[in-house]
Amino acid sequence: MDDVVDSGTPSRSPEDATLTATTGGEAVVAPVPDSGTQVGRYVIIEAVGQGGMGVVLAAFDPELDRKVAIKLLHRDHGDGRRASEGRSRMLREAQALARLSHANVVTVHDVGLYEGRVFIAMEFVAGKTMSEWLAEAQPDWRTALDKYIEAGRGLAAAHAAGLVHRDFKPHNVLIGEDGRVRVTDFGLARSRRDQEADLMLESLSDSVELNSSSELNTGEHALASTLTRTGDRVGTPAYMAPEQFSALPVDPRADQFSFCVALYEAVYGERPFKGRTALEIATRAAQGRVRATPSNSSVPHWLRRALVRGLGPEPSDRFASMDALLDVLAVDPRRRWRRAALIMLPPVALGGWWIASQSSHDACAGVDAKLEGIWNAGRKKSIEDRFARTGLPYALSNWDTVRGRMDVLAASWAAAERAMCRTAEEDVPVGYGRRMACLHRRYEELRSYSDLLAEADAGLVEHAVTTVEALGTVGDCEDESPGMRSDIPGEAQREITAALARTRVLGQAGRYDAAVEAANEARRAAEAVDERWLAAEATFELGKVTESTGRVKDAQQIYDDAFSAGVAAGHDEVVARAAMSVAVLELDHDKDFAAADNWMEHAGGAIERMGEPGQDMKPELENVRGRIAHAQGDYEQARAAFERGLEIRRSNLGEDAPQLASYHVNLGHALANLGRFDEAIINMKRALVLEEREFSPDHPRVAASLTSLCSVLRDTGQTEAAVEACTRSVSVLRAAVGENHPRTGTALVNLGSALADADRPDEALEYFIAALASARAVYGDGHPRTGLVLNNLSVQYELAEDWTTAEDYARQALETFQRALGEDHPTTAVVASNLANLLSKQQRHGEAEVILRRNAEVLERRLGPDHPDLAMVIGMLGETFIHRERLPESIPYLERTAKILEQAGGHPFEIATSKFALGATLFEIGEERERGLALVRAAAQQYRDAGARADQIEEIEAWLEEFAPADGDTMP
């Protein structure tokens, strides 16, 4: 093997980092199970790899109909302590991985024993190790870096879970055929509190050679004893941090060191420290003696600088965390400066009209006069009166917020303008023209918004706060790169800038027709002088306001034009924003998930090319990714994306920034769909607090948060609280935006559902009918929103036992969702289950069973085996057997339903119902009467505690009275 023998160019073979299990210096490898052998519930297919600790087998899971990987520990014929250690290590690997849920960490499904040997059932990754991929692909440094960044994210996730891998190396990284990178082999992963015990054990280890292919002299033998645990090294020497060589406690920075060794090897083709033995490598690593850069290397210096820091001999020399290292690796400074080079021109030539049009002294003297004309006491009083005359309950609250923001923006603009003028009096600095152009744009935005506020109506008042939030700040002018050419006419550029400012302000304020006109003006002016950069911006702004007018197809085409214009101009911000906008339209209106994903790839690439300036767009990128995953029913992926976006926003803006509210809402929905209701409610309430702090309680933004909170409260059985939240939301939206508005329609649906939960069916039906009219007016008959209302109407008519009307609405709803989302979407499955329930109530149990079996397969595949939505379908399947008097066949379904709901903390009524169904059936079969009776009694108590409907309590009490009279006697 090649772990410690370094001839300058390391081997890329799969065995490169494999440990050898030894007993007294001799390897002992246990027999490999034959194909067809059953290990636990898994059927072995073939062996796919073998290492020092065990063999890796491909296997089939007959219960879940999927291929898995089985890691089976070698049988150790040495003393009992070694065998016990091996089993403990394998169990640690399973436990460590089971605590992680991350796209870049291999997933563990199960752990068990086979003939005294521990096995772990894991996700089967069809692909190859990083070692194999590097050897075959021979990637350039950029491609190799991208793959290792993915692996680094997996390590960072492990660290966040309190784990240290301790054996990161290329052989422990898998690259699937889908291109996704996963870190594996956490057999040495330990929490920090476990390491002290490990070190005590290691001090008792026998002294053995590290590698049978390399001779160790007497001086090196002492080192070997600290690296082994009776033949099993704690790590792989070629990749180990100095503190691991010294048998000191390690923290995540040891993994960072190993990661940098592996990445260095990938980009340079050799490891960072010379040495033929472990001692030589350890010595150079402890001294920080990284090899010199190869003379023919194309690896940039910034990357080498980051790697050398990560290879620091002391943990304190390295980055504070893997995340900090990844932040550096993910941003290529050369790309940032290349982008700047395209747009920064010599200061004298750049936008000479900014300087030539007036002297710097005159400009400084005129700052106050320019500001007085657009934001003075008289104008503020006039605007306040306009706001008050709208009569909106939140008008003056909005005005207070807007006035405060405008005061700050105006004052900061004046200060920046004066500072630029005074600087220019002494010497015209590099970038002067660029920054003055940016300040001019900020001034035009202030002027445009002030003029708009002076004519405020109810519509503008509603959008006033979000509009002022969208205005740029003078701080942006330090980084903004307008990309102006030096030879375009000065007056033309002023017109373009002013038109773009009006477009943004008018669009944010909801004045879409005027915004379209301003955007077209800016676009025509930019094209007339061949100013590609600003033409791309104007085209994108035109797409935004066109979309806002409801002309979706036109907007898609304009965004496509903006994307192309951005590519031609090298304007990556426009490229990214246009691509994300098309992705959202593909998602919301066409339900073309593949197209949406494709556009998101373009957006992500553009943001990466932007370098550091693109970091501000990453939360938006994650938010759209989360929306796409959520729409496809992949709630775990959606949760992860929303959390990433929220965390970036929080780190940039602070904990109390109002912009975090939408991220909390989206995250709350994803968590609720994963059955994590307590966390969902926390996020929804946090969003509500942020919105109420930013707006007034009667603002539509607050109503949206209330609607989302209502939805999650319903899921947790907090019926009265849900009705209260939904009622308030509907009241606010009807007053603010009217009946036929998408937000009002959503609120009506949620209120109807909450009223139904509260056993107020007549009121519920009233709101559902209103919601259907609203949905058809806004979305049309083929949209999922309309399908949702149809489904809920079906449920209401079912409760009224109007089977014909209920089935008609149910089939309309199912057809709508099948067309819009596809057969395999979880929402489609739920709607189909409602239809099956209707069929069962009409004694059409065979038809219902066919639908329910299909739905169970879909939901388990998409949501996992323990999701509450799956429990509903499985319970209904059990009921179809009960109705056909095939009671024993129903038991497995009823058992599983009760277990899932109990573990997931589902709705208390649903848990009680599942217990009642299972208990009564067991009792009736006669095999487990005592257990059945206990379940029914527990269900009865749970009904009472949860405040169930009278008819529910009466039904279960009647059963108990018949089969378990008060004196305790039961019928035979």
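The record above closes out task 2.4. Task 2.5 opens with a second protein, given below.
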Amino acid sequence: MKSFNKQPQRAMSNCFCVLFSVGLVLLSVIQIETAEAKQKDQNWDKWRTMGQGYVARRKVPKNISKKVSERKLKDVADRLNKKIVLRNRSSKKTAKLTKSLNKNVALNNKVTAKLDKQITNLKKKKRKGRKGRRGKKSTSVWLRNQGEGIYSISITELASETGVSVDDVRELAFKNKFTLTYMDKGVDWLYYPDTDSIIYVAEQYDTFHTDQNAYRLSFSKSRKSNTIRISNQNDGPDYGDLTPFNESLKFEEEPDFFYSLSAVAAEQDADYWFWDFLFGGNKDSIIVPLSIPDPVQSGTALIRITLRGWTNLYDGDEHQVLAELNGVQIGISPSWDGFDEAVLELTFDQSILNADGENELILRNQAIVGPNAGQFLDQIEVDYYRLPIAQDGKIWLHDVVAGVQTVSGFTTDEILVIQNPVHNPFAKRDISIFEESDGSFSVSFDVNNGGLDYLVTSVESIQLASVEFDEYSDLENKRNSSDYLIISPREFSETANKLREYRNRQFGKATIVWIGDVYDEFSDGRQDPMAVTRFVDRMQKKWRRSASIIVVLGKGSIDHKDRMGYSDSFVPVVMTSTPWALSASDDRLIHGEQDPSIVIGRVPITSDNQGVDYVNKLIAYEQRNIVDEQYKGVLVADDPDIAGDFHANSDLFAEQMTGIYGFDNILKLYHPQPTSVSSQMTLNATWEVGLVNYEGHGSATQVGDGNEDFILAENAKILTNTNLPVFVSLTCAAGDFTVPGTSSLAGALVLNPNGGAIVAFAPSGLSIDKDALELGDEFYSSLFGGGKQIGYAAKDAKINSSASVHGFMRRMYSVIGDPAVYAR
């Protein structure tokens, strides 16, 4: 029996570690604070005591004082600069293509004449585009858009991205030999000769991870596809009424550094980014401006205000919020408790809305119990009757009633009217344009059948889609096989190829899967972390041989949508619930809700150069001769407290290291001791061993609390030790690489090209001491006792401890670095 099994059962503790769940200051649990202390700790970069026994500090990434647009990390900025250079090269190519186009004006006019003739003779029956077989090689591009509306892509840019000549692309467009799809369904498009471009209607797609939608445009020389039907050129109707329609608006802002992982701790897939907050006694009200354009001044409107409690200080319900709109109280929420979500749904008379569209919503905290209840504002939705007046040159009309419909508010007479814009779109030419007395323009058209939608836009308001060449992939093919799988963005191609070439020597087949291809095939081209989960499931069930080891190249961030401007989330993360906050889990990214069946590790690089340095470090480590230092270890322990007897725990590890696992020398660095632990941990000599184990308090960027600072991520980056140990961190959050603009301690050690550690086993969130000890015990039993690779040791530790260690603990402990590494 292992020695840890003999220890008395410890009560579950909070670990008294850093509470890394909150980007927003958790004001509610700070009961008393002087003005001087507030000023000193306004950035939360110092430790402070919080309610309910936690010790916490705010995660403060670099450059937080800079504007969002100026925050990108140096390596990310360098990467983007390279993209700019490549884009400039592309622009030069486009200029050449444009010059070529100008030389062929006569041909262009001829094509346009043919197009006009084709439009006149268009059949009323819609042409059906044939669905292309996934995986079949073809020339195709992804068209990406933000928000709904009409989008265009020029023939010249399509030529530039695909390498096909401008003349050939235009001819394909003229002959309707493009296939446009959305989620594998055909989408209608139109070649618009006035701008020499393809236009299509795009739907809005906005999730927690991305606000980009994706449409796939494929070239085909053999088949025709769906095109937007166009009505005959008939006279339009006379000026009609500005008939109101039902409009639904959604308002949601996600300001800088305004997230909370603790408020949604029980909901692992919840949106944890918020808009604003209320805090009784300190911030009793908030003012929210709402732009609600062109309301009818009669009728009933509906508002839905989504709130969430972010305190749970008292027994029973403690939250209640009152709403006022333009100075009129419109309702008060039912009371609710804890961290639950609450939706305040209220009706009000539209006469309250201001005719100019600018409105002011005030939310007030109504204390139920005690003075310090706090609530988050998440989002607001408004349903109301709106006049058909275009904003920014466009408007989307819903459920239009039959009759003559007039839409005003345009600054040009070049207006498009698309009936049924999403399903079976139809471009109306039987419209009438009127110039108003103020110089603006209106458009009238017949609505023969009520209940349809219409998208009305000026030509100058057509938006440009971004274009990305669709690289060939066939990840669903049953003939695929792999033993060692690398998941990486293409921008880290040098790292991925170097690692594949090296690992091919140890494994039957090392394979690269690009994250973009995973998105393309498993989430319809859109960024979604669950696409990775679906791909791995497909690989395990269908591939001829499924990989047993997966390494992810690229840092992930809780801000994959890049609200904070660091642009340092390359392979996204998914979260797992813990009793205190959400924490990142690569196990859940790969396995979903299943127990680990594949070995997984992440190398959290932010540049290709950083990745190549790590692979070089890995190769040098594995090609070295085993030296005496591999049988030496360092055990670092915090001073004992209510969270755990860290000294006694480390003593038990020491007995196992020397008595079972063959270590001949163990250095104990126990705090407090005559020699400063921090001075020892920042020495290169301390890291010239085979293992460094830490037991105690910690955070994403350090071990030890704010007064101890045993070693910081910044210290780890400058170590120059020549022997590279395994770093095991039985603490809180030392493996949390998800903070925007910040490197974790484990990541800093592993990615240090001149020293540090070769690999780490560490958690992404708050850890329970007893469970961490058992995980560590099982990890060492497999790593040193069984002589297994680090990834397999982590897998064994989780499986063998499943009966006694909390599930969230197993899910949030992960391997930082290549999981195929042996300790000796």
